[in-house]
Structures are given as structure tokens and as C-alpha cells.
């Protein structure tokens, strides 16, 4: 292998690793800002809606943003559509509940996919960077051994310089991979926490929908005379 080919292969490897490093930190900053924003939005939703036992007001939810607000708005729309098209008595409640749970799960999956964007880049860089660096090192060592053979000497002065230069690519590859892997693990853990929070909220929302429906039902008094309204206001 010629000196020029080896030079450009090693330099190209280092350039690719520099690109990987820049891309890693770009994704880390973008994902950090995204998760900070989602956390603030969910906190604002919790502060505004509170620990409701009945369905929150749709007008109040429309004023909010974030994953939890979007899941709540989806649930409110589906539940109201079911009330108009299916009904609210007997087996119809079970049909509406199944429909509500299915649509909530779909919305949660959409929120997860949005939060997962960019994580594949970090995973790919974290797993491939050491091998890219190793490739540059192998090429550099092959070239260094060729030069040593042509010089006819294997003294430490002759060997140390070329081999040390070749090992730089491996060290650089590891330096690029470590932040990518650490950031990936942190973001995945936060994503799992977000998913668990949305699942808990969806379960709470379904229970609130059922309670709201029965709270709106008129009850017959014990004498069997006129209905007695048991409607209650939804808590904020």
C-alpha cells in the first residue's frame, strides 16, 4: 500500500470520527432540550389539571401542550364521539371503554416515537466508532510495519513513532463512542419514564371517563318516582 493511500485512509478515518463527534453532540443538545421541554409541558399540565377524578374540561386541555395534554385531548375526543354514536348504557360502556383504551395506546405510541427520534443515531455512533478507529489503526500499523521492513531496523526509535501515530485513531474512536453510549442510555431511561407516566395517566383517564359517565346518569329514588340527578362537577 502506497504512502499516499495510507495517508488518506488514516486522515479520512479521523475526519469521519470528527464528523461522528459533532453529530453526537448536536443530537445530545437537541434531545436534551426536547426532553426538558416535554418535562416542563407535562408539569404544566399536572399543575393546571391536577389529580382529577372525573374528566377534565376539554377547553382547559386545549390550552395546554405536551405529551400528556395530547393524550388527554385524544381521549376526550374519542369518549365524546362514543357518547354521541354508541351510547352510555349497559354493554355500550364496555365498547366505548375498549375504543378509548385502544386510541390512548395509539397516541402513547406516537408520543414515544416522537421522543425516540435521534436515539438511533447515538446508538449507531456508539457501536461503530471504535471499529472505525480500529480500522484506521490497522491500516496505519500495516503501513508502519512496511516502512520498518524497508528500513531494515526494528529498534524502539524506529517502531515507536509510526505505531504510536497509528494508535491515535483507536483512541479517538473510543473517545467518540463513550459520550454517545452514555447519552443514549440516559435518554432511553428518561424515555421509559415518560412512557410509564403516560401509561399511568391513560389508566387514570379511563377510570375518570367511567366515573364521569355514571355521574351524569340520573338515578331512580327508592320510591320509584321521578329521577334524582346525581351529576357532579368535574374537579379541576
Question: What do these coordinates show?
Answer:
The protein is mainly α. The protein has one domain. It has six helices and two strands. It has a two-stranded antiparallel sheet. A hairpin with a 6-residue loop joins strand 1 and strand 2. Helix 3 (67-85) packs antiparallel against helix 4 and helix 4 (91-116) packs antiparallel against helix 6. The protein is rod-shaped. Residues 217-236 have low confidence and may be disordered.
In short:
The protein is mainly α and 236 residues long. The chain is built from 6 helices and 2 strands; from the N terminus they run ααααααββ.
What topology does this entry show?
Elements: H1 3-49, H2 58-62, H3 67-85, H4 91-116, H5 119-151, H6 156-215, E1 218-220, E2 227-229
Antiparallel strand pairs: 1-2
Helix pairs in contact: 1-5, 1-6, 3-4, 3-6, 4-6, 5-6
List keywords for this structure.
disordered C terminus; single chain; mainly alpha; 236 residues; 81% helix
